[in-house]
């Protein structure tokens, strides 16, 4: 059994990491500002679904491939960069119509959920980070390391939900203002597109 103090330290570290500026929380912020708090929460759930994939990969050892294989790391990195550029293209062509109609129907929410998953899964840095971070808190003397990794992954996801949900809620106030200004909507879409391009370039430059 994992000691409570170890879980507390891990949770605190996870919260700090979630607060650090990065592609995922910036993505939640921009989507919440553009489409509202609910959209940000759905994106958060999508990102955390991606974290489930990374946690499982670490637990069964698949993530080690991306740490040892330059080709696998590069291919996933290029896929993630291409998707970010696609999101940038969508943001630049959105104008004001996509915002002013306030569309947060089921179709829109499904798309945002899928965006969150793809955004997270295609970031090889997350896989490598999980491979380096989660096992540090596991102790073979406490039983199965794979089970401990899964438990720590769950704690990390809980911390991520709390942090990103707070980001989404705060960004929602910005979104309410954007709905009242078509010019601000256009500017925010341009900002979001620029952010996506910046994230794509950062991902392209990432090294193992």
Description:
- This protein has 208 residues and is mainly alpha-helical.
- The chain has one domain.
- The protein starts with a helix and ends with a helix.
- About 3% of the residues have low confidence.
Name the helix and strand elements from N-terminus to C-terminus, one letter apiece.
HHHHHHHHHH
Low-confidence stretches: 97-103
Gross morphology is globular
Tally of contiguous helical segments: 10
From the N-terminal CA to the C-terminal CA, the straight-line distance is 32 Å
What proportion strand?
Answer: under 5%
Class derived from helix and strand content: mainly alpha
The main sheet comes to:
none
How many strand segments?
A: 0
Helical residue percent?
over 70%
What is the count of distinct domains? 1
What integer value in Å does the Rg equal? 18 Å
Please name the defining characteristics of this protein.
208 residues; mainly alpha
């Amino acid at each position: 059994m994992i000691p409570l103090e170890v879980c507390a330290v891990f949770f605190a570290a996870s919260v700090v990491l979630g607060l650090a500026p990065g592609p995922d929380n910036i993505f939640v912020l921009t989507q919440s500002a553009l489409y509202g708090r609910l959209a940000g929460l759905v994106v958060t759930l999508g990102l955390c679904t991606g974290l489930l994939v990374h946690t499982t990969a670490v637990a069964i050892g698949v993530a080690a491939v991306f740490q040892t294989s330059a080709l696998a790391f590069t291919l996933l990195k290029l896929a993630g960069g291409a998707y970010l550029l696609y999101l940038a293209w969508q943001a630049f062509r959105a104008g004001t119509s996509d915002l002013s109609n306030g569309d947060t129907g089921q179709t829109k929410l499904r798309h945002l959920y899928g965006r969150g998953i793809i955004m997270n899964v295609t970031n090889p840095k997350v896989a490598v980070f999980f491979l380096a971070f989660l096992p540090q808190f596991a102790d073979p003397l406490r039983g199965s390391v794979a089970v401990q990794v899964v438990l720590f992954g769950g704690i990390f996801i809980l911390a991520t939900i709390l942090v990103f949900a707070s980001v989404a809620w705060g960004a929602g106030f910005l979104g309410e203002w954007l709905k009242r200004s078509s010019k601000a909507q256009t500017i925010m879409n341009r900002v979001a597109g620029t952010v996506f391009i910046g994230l794509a370039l950062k991902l392209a430059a990432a090294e193992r």
